[in-house]
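Reading group handout, session on sequence-to-structure problems. Before we discuss, look at one worked example. The prompt was deliberately terse, the way you'd type it at a terminal:

> structure Glyceraldehyde-3-phosphate dehydrogenase

The input record follows.
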Amino acid sequence: MTIKVGINGFGRIGRIVFRAAQKRSDIEIVAINDLLDAEYMAYMLKYDSTHGRFDGTVEVKDGHLIVNGKKIRVTAERDPANLKWDEVGVDVVAEATGIFLTDETARKHITAGAKKVVLTGPSKDNTPMFVKGANFDKYEGQDIVSNASCTTNCLAPLAKVINDNFGIIEGLMTTVHATTATRKPLTARLTKTGAAAAAHLRTSSRPLLALLKR
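And the output record:
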């Protein structure tokens, strides 16, 4: 059975979801929603400074992306409730905008016809978070879930092994994170968030252990 996937947000994470899906025969990307125009989306998919050129053909025809000969619907809706996922048979939406991170906002995808939603970042409410190798066995069929954060995905499987075998009372993790889109390439203002990304190491805290509390 092929799972039909729609992607909301075609930035770094959305494009990586797309690339990963292309390597599986049981997943088909049928729709993408982003405010970028289709031509620019095609360009960003084809050429990636980190992951290299896309292994396949990418073109635009009549406002659609054509990837390896398959047509993918492209839309530019700001409100997920207007996406009409049911028109293209979407089973699962990968919510990759970084905006709709609560059950209330992500549920708009369900209203638009999708069956399930996976948040590609940590949820901002009690939406359950799941990490491969840590707590997939706790999944009970919820229609909206979070895949937590990148740091949590790195730590949780290791922490689970230690906790299951020895127990963890408390802990501290320090991670060196790649520069993200929230950082400025040049100094923007006189705060640590405005310092030039390539010239400063910015310290911050993240809710990566929220997963262990749910």
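Points for discussion. First: The domain at 3-148 is CATH 3.40.50.720 (Rossmann fold). Second: The mean pLDDT is 90.
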